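Notes from hallway chat w/ T.B., transcribed later so I don't forget. T.B. wanted the structure written out for a chain they're using in a teaching module, and asked if we could keep both sequence and structure tokens in one place. Agreed to drop them here.
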Amino acid sequence: MKFVLACCGMRGDIEPFAAVGRELLRRGHDVHMAVPPNLVSFAESAGLPAVGYGLDWSVVMEVSNNFWSFVFRNFWRPQDVVRFVRETWELGARCWGEMSTTLTSLADGADLVFTGQSFEPVAANVAEYHNIPLATLHYVPIRVNGQLLPFLPAPLARSAITVNDWLFRCLTKKIEDAQRRELGLPKATGPFPRRITERGSLEIQAYDEVCFPGLAAEWAKWNGQRPFVGPLTMELQTDADDEVASWIAAGTPPIYFGFGSISVESPADTLAMIGAACAQLGERALVCSGAIPSVTTGGTDFSHVPHFDHVKVVGAINFATTFPACRAVVHHGGSGTTAAGLRAGVPTLILQQLAGDQPFWAAMVKRLKVGTARRLSTTTRESLVADLRTILAPQYVTRAREVATRMTKPAENVAAAADLVENFARLRRVG
């Protein structure tokens, strides 16, 4: 069978699809990936044919950050705000259209389209055009539910997500109508999440049930349409793994620090803050830039900033082998990194930089009592010291170890996801 995997985002968003794609390829299927242009080489390094899909995601994130910064700084100049919004929206519309064209061609003759959370309606409309099944992959529960926002009563949380879906529909209606018109499809009615569900699409939940207690029971009415498979990762080895293992073995277990594919505002100040905080606590620090040689995935460049004897700076590392050897993990709150920390059984401090799913994972580690969180922009040496003291307390260490025993295993998760996608395509083709 032919599977087309269309996904947007940073490296952490693409890896789950690459993991499933490799398993489908191993099973003898024809697999094609559509990924942001800067991540084509990453997909190809996993042995998967890939084409550029939309924009370099770092550009998308920069535009998004600039958008909100501009609006907040210039709200009293409505004409400038309207102009900026129009220019930003024109970029989004062009990206949407280019993605539709690429995916429409790539999905010709496919048995299934598999897509992620970002730009879901683009892939959903293309799948409808080709009359083939759609499977989606969610790293956080984005469909209407009462568990995602723990600080709100369940009915209010459901209402908030419903309102958000309708607002997104209002914002994207013109762009989506243009795509559907180009594809010869009738105008859509209602928010796209509802349409995707009503069409009977497979909505795979790539996170562990333990992270959102009660969610599986709430969604039981969908009769298996939203199966939980756990986080998906390839657990790739890196060139730095042996060196890091040797450094860890030569001293006390370190605290890991990493900020994903989004660079921090001031690498020098950030590293100085980490160094000072760890020195005060008598801890060693392992700082990961997130950069992968030969693959343009973003990250923070710590190569030209002062270094400290108790701090080791590295590029990409294998979380699966490194995190269990650390005392705690401090990171941006990406879904994959959060899951790796939970599986390792060590406490977590999330210093979130963006909106998206990071605030939800920050709230989750607090709810599970395996760590705490705050915004990176408000973090100081004093607050970092206090937060590290909090998560290194015995009750957090014990709780993190207990939660780790309830986490799923990545290899089993990938196999389960591939089974679901494979069987869904086969059943729908026969039907």
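Follow-up for T.B.: The first helix runs from residue 11 to 26. Might be a good example for the class.
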